[in-house]
Amino acid sequence: MSENREHFSSRLGFILAAAGSAVGIGNLVGFPVSATKNGGGAFLLVYALFVAFICLPVMMAEMAMGRKAQKDPLGSYKILGNNDTKWKLAGFLAVFTPFMIAVFYMVITVWIFGYLTQTALGNLDSLANPGHFGLFINSYTVFAYMAAVVLVVNLILLGGVKQGIEKAAKFLMPALFVMLIVLVGYVLTLDNAMAGVKYYIIPDFSKMNASVLNGALAQAFFSLSLGMGILMTYASYISKKDDIVGSAKMVAITDSLVAFVAGLMVLPAIFSFDPNTDPAALSDSSVSMIFVYLPKILLALQHDIGYFGASAVAFLFFLLVFFAAITSLVSIVEVPTATLSDRKGISRKKALGILTLATGVLTVLCTMSFGMVDSLTSFTGYGGQSKSFFDVVYDVFYDTILPFNGLMVCLFVMYRWKKANLSKELSIGSPNYAGSFMEKYVNFSLSTFIPIILATIFINTVATKFFGLKLFGF
Ligand code: TRP
Digits of tens for pLDDT over the chain (474 positions)? Predict the structure, then answer.
């Protein structure tokens, strides 16, 4: 079977594709803003520690499972778990979760594409109007943008692993790095740029508390594509000779570096617009930052470089975010695609057709839940708040299930598949791994405190989100 499975043509292709998955909208805006609000350098330090000591072992475990089984996540749990029904359930969740996350991420990517198109058409001034975003997301033009994004994603995925995913990543990722560097270079020349950099980098440990720590870990976990079945799926497309340990490190470093560098773009821009900005007052939501706050800042650049110049910078910014979003979207749609074609033995084309239809219906429902249709807008209520259909998808799948899926990976790998098998798989392509300190740390952490932390986060999120209970004080 596995001889027929398509593989990445090189280790670099795999790393770029996995990093492309990890680098997304959250890295570019969400991360810098939450770092600045929550202690600057102190947050950066804690985040780096979480990535290295908690996320990296989980990442390696996911990759090892996928490469060993040479299957989609459902197949991986099935094969490595000897068909055990309860683990098949974990496998099912590892496929259903990305399917639902694809829906919410699609909605946001469509808006990005809309803003990108509008800046290209010279309409930056209207994007900067305070009421514009609300009107935009409720206009029927979003469906046209949706059609375009669905087309792009499908064109990439139809190409398969080498000609689709890998080729796209090899073009989009370097382009993303270059655009990011160009924007950072420009923004750092603005007046008061350094005030932003200071807030971002100077540590303020007094801001640290349980809720900030929880937020930092959740952000790291989400950002690295963990718990989404993506790394398992991508790793099922690498060869038995490749070094997983080294690749996982590269993916984690690239993702964190892009997030860090993005702060050198976003914060200086905010502080040059208004040197008296109170970081605490910045919005927590990437959505309101990107679509409401930043267009205003980008338009203000016209005092410096004229309307055309400001539009060019805005275009570059939205293109950067769009590239980041597309590689993430591709990776997440690939998971159910792989499952459908592996499980049902159908072609990629057919699998993509089915998924486009299924995600399409749900994406349309989400899109209509911002005011277009009342029953979707006030879909339900919990934790004392009214929730739209979009909110439910986001709360359940992104906020709640991801740490649970991560927990399943740890428990499965350690107690069902077993440590020795994990070590064996990780040693292939990385001969120094066996017997190393890293091996001991990975086995110890994955079987003890990492699952405990993930379980605590999961229980706490369920309690606070859905029942309004504060169990652990964060
Ligand atoms: N890092 C992404 C972001 O910042 C999050 C993410 C990782 C993601 N993998 C993904 C989002 C897959 C969507 C699909 O937005």
Answer: 445 799 999 999 999 999 999 999 999 999 999 999 999 999 999 999 999 999 999 999 999 999 999 999 999 999 999 999 999 999 999 999 999 999 999 999 999 999 999 999 999 999 999 999 999 999 999 999 999 999 999 999 999 999 999 999 999 999 999 999 999 999 999 999 999 999 999 999 999 999 899 989 999 999 999 999 999 999 999 999 899 999 999 999 999 999 999 999 999 999 999 999 999 999 989 999 999 999 999 999 999 999 999 999 999 999 999 999 999 999 999 999 999 999 999 999 999 999 999 999 999 999 999 999 999 999 999 988 899 999 999 999 988 999 999 999 999 999 999 999 999 999 999 999 999 999 999 999 999 999 999 999 999 999 988 988 877 766
User: Which one of 31, 157, 223 would you pick to mutate in the ligand 1 pocket, going by the greatest count of ligand atoms within 8 A of its CB?
Assistant: 223
Mutate to test the pocket of ligand 1, among 55, 62, 222 (most ligand atoms within 8 A of CB): 222
CATH number of the domain encompassing residue 258: 1.10.4160
Q: Is the CB of 27 under 6 A from ligand 1?
A: yes
Do residues 13 and 163 lie in contact, with contact meaning Cβ atoms separated by under 8 Å? no
In a domain, 3, yes or no: no
Give the pair of three-digit tokens for residue 313. Answer: 């910078």
- The neighbour count for residue 62, using CB atoms within 10 Å, is 32
CA pair distance 254, 174, nearest whole angstrom: 12
Q: Whose CA is nearest to atom 14 of ligand 1?
A: 328
Structural domain that includes position 79: 11-467
Domain assignment present for 1: no
472 belongs to a structural domain: no
Q: What distance in angstroms lies between residue 302's CA and the mean position of ligand 1's atoms?
A: 32
Residue 5 falls within a domain, yes or no?
no
Count: domains in the chain: 1
Indicate whether residue 328 lines ligand 1 (CB < 6 A): yes
**Residue holding tokens 């060019």?**
312
- Nearest-CA neighbor of 1 among 466, 235, 437, 345? 345
Q: Where are the alpha helices (DSSP H) in 345-401?
A: 348-367, 374-377, 389-393
Does any ligand 1 atom lie closer than 6 A to the CB of residue 222?
yes
